[in-house]
Amino acid sequence: MVPGLLGLTSVSAASASEEAFLSLPTFEIPAFDYASLTQGDMPSTLLETLQVDGIVALRHVPNFVNMREKYLDAAAECAVAAAHSAESDFLSEKNFEDGTRRYTINTNAGLELATAAENTRKLCPGYRELYLEFSALLENAVNGFGVALDQTSFTASDGHRVISSRQLVSEAVRLDHFHAYQASTIQAEAAVPADAEHRKLEFSLPLHEDHGLFIAMIAPKFFEVHGEGEERRLVERELANDASGLVIQRASGQKVRPVLKEDEVFIMMGTGGSRWLQTSHRIPAVMHGMRMPDSLVQNEHRSLRAWFGKMTLLPAYQRLLENNDATFAEHANMTTRFLLESTDDDLKTIGCATGRMLTASEGSCTHRSCTTKSGATAPADGCATVCNREGHSSTDESECSEKCSCTDDSGSGELCWMLCFHAHSDDCNASDDHLGTCHDLGACHDFKSSDDYLQPIDDAQSKQWNVSYTHDVEPKQRCFQS
Predict the structure, then answer these.
(1) pTM of the entire predicted model
(2) Does residue 254 lie in a domain region?
(3) Are residues 398 and 321 in the same domain?
């Protein structure tokens, strides 16, 4: 059983971080009509637009609006049901520093889509069929994007041969993730040290780049969970389409709140194009993060943010620019081994830009197979859960060590959805001139070197600082003192 989706009392006060979030300018994502994507000058315009901020929207994808609605409803229901079941091996859990809890259903897609999500059948009847239909719909949209790129001057190479964009995209390994984010609560905050300062942190999911070619994603839906057991039901909530919680950092360094429209599919570029391939055009990876809206926290019911994304990587057979002797499949296996076996953060920088560290998005990427030690009493939640979950309890590590025997495993054979976070130190000393290097990514702010990067905010007593940006300078990691 995955713990956490229980009836809890919500936080009552809006935070300064929410006000700061809402003060960010909105950003209209440049949109392209899907049916016209390959017509006339549209492919060239698409490429030019991608070079600006690395993000575009596709509108009028056939049957998308109807299928998005059905799929997110079913996926949210499935996640809630699985969180209360001891047989939810397909659901992973992750806790964030602000108390937000995330439940994930992740599957291999692309060429492996036909066999995906088999393990959801028992707990979530009907979910797999909806998932396969929705995922296939997005596969078509993604492949259409690749066809459009193929009609431009854009080229990609592994250093020896040019690769067709159409082939690169259509034969790529793909990973599907459904995320149900549960808003933090007073009880969740009480389970960790008070100095964690939940809901004062800027992001739930800190700023990062996706370690892939690009992600196709959709606008989230929001739900309240009413009742328990057989009486449990999900009630949809309406939030403004510029208040989804997503923040992106434009190529200029400006943070904005993108407007996520329910009838659009969003293509957001990752680091793979620049790290794995040699390309004719520079398309920036999009730095982005997510903050759970306070309106979800200030609520007598449990609140969920339901979201789906499809990550495009590379074809398994594709050679890499940075290591032409290795295929992408070999690179992925090596990456997983490093994350499993190494405690040296330097090793975890493989595949990321300078100053960033590779991190697995889900615990299933670095899964350990664990059983109860001979003569020991099994933990209440079982060895498999206690030894693999993150951020749930301060006693998990010691309980696992005392009661369980583990071997490293890459889980069910799925590849890992990787993120590139800014590298950080384990030593946070914010008392030194308000500029200590901080280990807590959620509490820190990524800024770039500038003579005037610090500016005091109006209330000097708060000891907080605004951060200004300059472009194309190596990032540093600092944190506020509050």
Answers:
(1) 0.71
(2) yes
(3) no
